[in-house]
């Protein structure tokens, strides 16, 4: 009973870290999710001058790895948790002052950016909290340039149900569901690779290219 209550609380915090527990959790996530974020970075195919958006950056681990490549012109983060923003504002204050990093309080379903503002978008361990994938993917498509790349890294549905998070609001998606939803939103070249780690077992990295049509 107590374990179940804690699991529900944890699931809620993972989706929207808040308060002192959320701040601790954000720091833990940086270590816990490093392997998934590293695979995302490897497959983002960053180029010099890229404008990069990360949605749901949590503790900022991936933003830091991207910044360390010194390739992008700018890295923008969109995150719904004010506490995550505050932590990352401190962490990246030097780059923020130099306008190399921007952090926005924003929801993935309503990105506060102009059309075609980014060359790359990445998001890791976030889709479980999105009941309407098509809304988010349509927004991503809108803010990507023609041939811009979206990369999503996520745990398997099977792993989420073994962890019992599915009972507390996490949505586990099959790879085929993600791929179909991306194609419906207008993406092409949709491909998925599989990663492995002791913590996450099998996980996935799906990438897709924005195609604006005729
Ligand atoms: C489980 S954490 C993952 C953090 C980081 N990406 C990682 O892999 O460690 C999920 C993060 O996504 C954010 N998030 C979830 N839904 C969001 C939404 N609709 N818009 C913006 N951020 C969202 C949460 O606030 C949280 O910081």
Brief overview:
The chain is an alpha/beta fold. It is 42% helix and 26% strand.
What can you tell me about this protein's structure?
The structure is a single chain. The chain contains 9 helices and 7 strands. With 214 residues, the protein is an alpha/beta fold. The protein has one domain (2-210): 3-Layer(aba) Sandwich (Rossmann fold). Helix 3 crosses helix 4 and helix 7 crosses helix 9. The termini are far apart. The mean pLDDT is 94. It binds S-adenosylmethionine (SAM). S-adenosylmethionine (SAM) binds next to helix 1 and strand 2.
Explain the layout of strands and helices.
Elements: H1 2-15, H2 19-32, H3 34-44, E1 51-55, H4 61-68, E2 74-79, H5 82-91, H6 93-97, E3 101-105, E4 118-124, H7 133-143, E5 144-155, H8 157-162, H9 175-184, E6 187-197, E7 201-210
Parallel strand pairs: 1-2, 1-4, 2-3, 4-5
Antiparallel strand pairs: 5-7, 6-7
Helix pairs in contact: 3-4, 7-9
The chain binds S-adenosylmethionine.
The site of S-adenosylmethionine has 23 residues, from helix 1 and strand 2.
Contiguous runs where pLDDT drops below 50 for at least 5 residues: none
* Rg calculated over all Cα atoms: 16 Å
Structural class determined from secondary elements: alpha/beta
- The CATH architecture comes to 3-Layer(aba) Sandwich
Q: Termini distance?
A: 56 Å
The major β-sheet equals:
7 strands, mixed
Which fold does the CATH topology refer to?
A: Rossmann fold
Order of helices and strands: HHHEHEHHEEHEHHEE
Mean pLDDT, to the nearest integer, reads 94
Strand order of the largest sheet: 3-2-1-4-5-7-6
CATH class: Alpha Beta
């Amino acid at each position: 009973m107590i374990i179940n209550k804690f699991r529900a609380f944890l699931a809620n915090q993972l989706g929207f870290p808040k308060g002192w527990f959320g701040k601790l959790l954000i720091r833990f996530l940086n270590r816990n999710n490093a392997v998934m974020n590293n695979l995302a970075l490897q497959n983002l195919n960053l180029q010099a001058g890229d404008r990069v958006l990360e949605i749901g950056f949590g503790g900022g681990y991936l933003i830091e790895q991207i910044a360390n490549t010194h390739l992008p012109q700018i890295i923008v983060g969109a995150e719904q948790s004010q506490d995550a923003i505050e932590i990352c504002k401190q962490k990246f204050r030097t780059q923020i002052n130099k306008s190399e990093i921007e952090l926005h309080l924003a929801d993935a379903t309503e990105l506060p950016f102009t059309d075609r503002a980014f060359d790359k978008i990445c998001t890791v361990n976030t889709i479980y909290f999105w009941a309407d994938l098509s809304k988010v993917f349509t927004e991503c498509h809108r803010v990507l340039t023609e041939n811009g790349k979206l990369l999503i890294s996520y745990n398997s549905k099977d792993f989420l149900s073994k962890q019992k998070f599915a009972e507390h609001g996490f949505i586990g998606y099959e790879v085929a569901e993600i791929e179909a939803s991306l194609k419906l939103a207008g993406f092409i070249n949709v491909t998925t690779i599989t990663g492995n780690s002791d913590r996450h077992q099998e996980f996935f990295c799906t990438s897709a290219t924005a195609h604006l049509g005729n």
